[in-house]
């Protein structure tokens, strides 16, 4: 039985075997114990007619795959056939042990109880008509009360099992649908997060590197004729930046730490970044570190390095600064990176670029904070603090 099938259906074929056993036993008993062979034969034929009637309609009714009118028609037919058999031969009433449970499998409790009463009506009527004394009537009444009471309790139990099984199946179906929706949502969210991560990594590394290379090549071209030495210096810087970009691309593909941190400390990576910026722009650029230097979590170091790369890239492209300073401070519970320039500045509230937004998201994911203090014409101070 599958997990989403109704639990009560597991016994469908067992109920059929029970029905067949009771029906065959009843027919044999009627033919063996009856007093009139004609009446017994009629009763046996009527009982045997229950077999094709069940195969034609009853199986689907018992399994609740037939509409309600079909269920009512089947049960009405069983009432007629079993009642007529009971009138012909009282021993035929034994088949009710198999027919009464079918009523509860086919209908809800109230309808099933009415069907049970209808199934027992003909045998009860015959007994009352044939009863010769009050004692027999009382005995029959007690027996009928016990049978009906048992049927009521048994039927209520069966009805509850069927109802709970149906609710369970529906709940499982809903859970499966919800789980499938959640899996699809998680897949989409994971794909989106991965795309955003790659976009941030590409923006903070490859895109900035290509921008730097392009600016260096343009600078080299402008000095090529009248200052070959300066042009050569720009070309050397462009080649070095291209090699670092290639290393970053390989690290990105292999999901390795940033190339700047793979074989050196955070301070060394920041120092190289600042020195290259000064060489490219031809302006004073200094890096300092204070506090007790110590290794940080890999995620924190990546956040600080990427923030420094983004900040220096913005200085290179937009600031027009005459002086740049980068400071890394190790505190007791946090590491603070501060990038300061005396360039043109900007309005942080009006900034809509991907770089600053991606930087905020990256810092927030690391549990840190980012502050940008800038105004047009007043330079820029970017501060990033991450837990140490």
UniProtKB/TrEMBL annotation:
The keyword Nucleotide-binding does not apply. The lineage of its organism: Bacteria, Bacillati, Actinomycetota, Actinomycetes, Streptosporangiales. The chain crosses the membrane at residues 15-32, 38-57, 69-89, 109-129, 136-158. Keywords: 4Fe-4S, Coiled coil, Cytoplasm, Iron, Iron-sulfur, Kinase, Membrane, Metal-binding, Transferase, Transmembrane, Transmembrane helix, Two-component regulatory system. Pfam families: HATPase_c, HisKA_3. Residues 197-388 form the Histidine kinase domain. Its main location: cytoplasm. Residues 168-195 form a coiled coil. Its EC number is 2.7.13.3. This is Oxygen sensor histidine kinase NreB. It comes from Actinomadura rubrobrunea. InterPro entries: HATPase_C_sf (IPR036890), HATPase_dom (IPR003594), His_kinase_dom (IPR005467), Sensor_HK_TwoCompSys (IPR050482), Sig_transdc_His_kin-like_C (IPR004358), Sig_transdc_His_kin_sub3_dim/P (IPR011712), Sig_transdc_His_kinase_ChrS (IPR017205). Its cofactor is [4Fe-4S] cluster. It catalyses: ATP + protein L-histidine = ADP + protein N-phospho-L-histidine. Member of the two-component regulatory system NreB/NreC involved in the control of dissimilatory nitrate/nitrite reduction in response to oxygen. NreB functions as a direct oxygen sensor histidine kinase which is autophosphorylated, in the absence of oxygen, probably at the conserved histidine residue, and transfers its phosphate group probably to a conserved aspartate residue of NreC. NreB/NreC activates the expression of the nitrate (narGHJI) and nitrite (nir) reductase operons, as well as the putative nitrate transporter gene narT. GO terms for cellular component: cytoplasm; membrane. It comes from the Bacteria. GO terms for molecular function: 4 iron, 4 sulfur cluster binding; metal ion binding; phosphorelay sensor kinase activity; protein dimerization activity. It is found in: Cytoplasm.
């Amino acid at each position: 039985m599958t997990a989403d099938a109704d639990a009560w259906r597991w016994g469908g074929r067992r109920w059929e075997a029970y029905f067949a056993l009771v029906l065959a036993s009843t027919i044999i008993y009627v033919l063996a114990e009856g007093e009139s062979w004609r009446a017994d034969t009629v009763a046996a034929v009527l009982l045997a007619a229950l077999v094709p009637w069940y195969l034609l309609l009853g199986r689907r009714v018992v399994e609740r795959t037939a509409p309600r009118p079909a269920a009512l028609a089947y049960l009405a037919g069983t009432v007629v056939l079993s009642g007529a058999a009971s009138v012909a031969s009282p021993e035929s009433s034994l088949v009710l042990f198999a027919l009464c449970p079918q009523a509860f499998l086919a209908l809800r409790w109230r309808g099933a109880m009415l069907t049970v009463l209808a199934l027992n009506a003909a045998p009860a009527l015959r007994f009352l008509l044939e009863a010769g004394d009050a004692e027999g009537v009382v005995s029959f009444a007690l027996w009928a009360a016990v049978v009906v009471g048992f049927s009521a309790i048994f039927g209520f139990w069966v009805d509850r099992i069927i109802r709970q099984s149906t609710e369970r199946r529906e709940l499982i179906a809903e859970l499966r649908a919800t789980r499938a929706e959640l899996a699809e949502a998680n897949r989409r969210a994971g794909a989106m997060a991965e795309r955003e991560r790659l976009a941030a990594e590409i923006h903070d590394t490859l895109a900035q590197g290509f921008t730097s290379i392009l600016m260096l090549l343009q600078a080299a071209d402008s000095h090529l004729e009248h200052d070959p030495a300066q042009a050569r210096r720009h070309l050397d810087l462009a080649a070095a930046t291209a090699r670092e970009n290639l290393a970053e691309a390989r690290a990105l593909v292999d999901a390795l730490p940033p190339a700047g941190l793979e074989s050196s400390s955070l301070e060394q990576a920041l120092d190289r970044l600042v020195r290259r910026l000064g060489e490219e722009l031809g302006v004073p650029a200094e890096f300092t570190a204070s506090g007790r230097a110590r290794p940080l979590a890999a995620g924190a170091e990546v956040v600080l390095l990427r923030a420094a790369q983004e900040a220096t890239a913005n200085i290179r492209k937009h600031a027009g600064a005459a002086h740049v300073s980068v400071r890394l401070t190790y505190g007791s519970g946090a590491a603070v990176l501060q990038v300061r320039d005396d360039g043109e500045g900007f309005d942080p509230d009006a900034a809509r670029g991907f770089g600053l937004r991606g930087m905020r998201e990256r810092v927030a994911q690391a549990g840190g904070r980012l502050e940008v203090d800038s105004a047009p014409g007043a330079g820029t101070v970017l501060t990033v603090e991450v837990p140490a």
